[in-house]
TrEMBL record:
Highest taxon listed in the record's lineage: Eukaryota
Cross-referenced SUPFAM superfamilies: NTF2-like
Stretches assigned to the SnoaL-like domain: 14-140
Pfam families (alphabetical): SnoaL_4
UniProt source species: Kockovaella imperatae
Protein name: SnoaL-like domain-containing protein
Length: 155
C-alpha cells in the first residue's frame, strides 16, 4: 500500500516549525533513497549548498548529481528553527552526520567509506508543490568539523 506520487509524500497539516524542519527531512530522505522528485520538493530552483565557508559550492542540480551517485545515510540532530509567525522566510541550524559509500557499495563491509560531521545553517522560504504549501531550502551552509575514512569516495 504505497502511493509514490510527490503529493502523497507532502504533509499539509504541520505546524510552522514542523513544516520548516520537514524541508530538511525531505532533502535528507531524498538523498538516502535516491528520490529526485522528493528532493525537488525540498529546495528552491536557485538553491545553493556551500561547505567550509564557500570552499565548496554546488547549485541544486550539481548537488543532486553529486549525492545521487552514492549510497548515503544522513542524520540531523540539535535542530533549531528561527521563525517569526507569519513570515515567508526562516532560518535553521542543526548538527549533521553523513555516511558516504560509492554507488552500490553501501552493503559491502570492506568498501571504502567517508563519514563526516558538522554544523549546518539553512535559509528557507515558503513555496508550493502541486498546490501544497511547503518550506524549501534556499541556502545550505555546512561547516565540516571532522571526518574519517577515504575522501576519494566523494569523487
Amino acid at each position: 500500500m504505497s502511493d509514490s506520487s510527490v503529493q502523497s509524500q507532502l504533509c499539509s497539516d504541520l505546524l510552522p516549525r514542523e513544516a520548516i524542519i520537514d524541508a530538511l527531512y525531505r532533502a535528507e530522505t531524498a538523498f538516502d533513497s535516491n528520490d529526485k522528485a522528493l528532493f525537488e520538493t525540498s529546495v528552491t530552483d536557485d538553491m545553493v549548498f556551500t561547505m567550509n565557508g564557500g570552499t565548496v559550492s554546488f547549485g541544486k542540480d550539481a548537488l543532486w548529481g553529486f549525492i545521487s551517485s552514492k549510497d548515503t545515510t544522513h542524520f540531523a540532530s540539535n535542530i533549531r528553527v528561527m521563525y517569526a509567525s507569519g513570515s515567508d522566510t526562516a532560518k535553521m541550524t542543526f548538527t549533521g552526520l553523513a555516511q558516504h559509500y560509492g554507488g552500490g557499495t553501501g552493503n559491502d563491509l570492506k568498501a571504502p567509506y567517508f563519514l563526516a560531521g558538522g554544523l549546518n545553517k539553512v535559509d528557507l522560504v515558503k513555496g508550493s508543490v502541486e498546490g501544497v504549501e511547503v518550506w524549501k531550502i534556499k541556502h545550505w551552509a555546512m561547516d565540516r568539523i571532522w571526518a574519517q575514512g577515504d575522501q576519494g569516495v566523494l569523487h
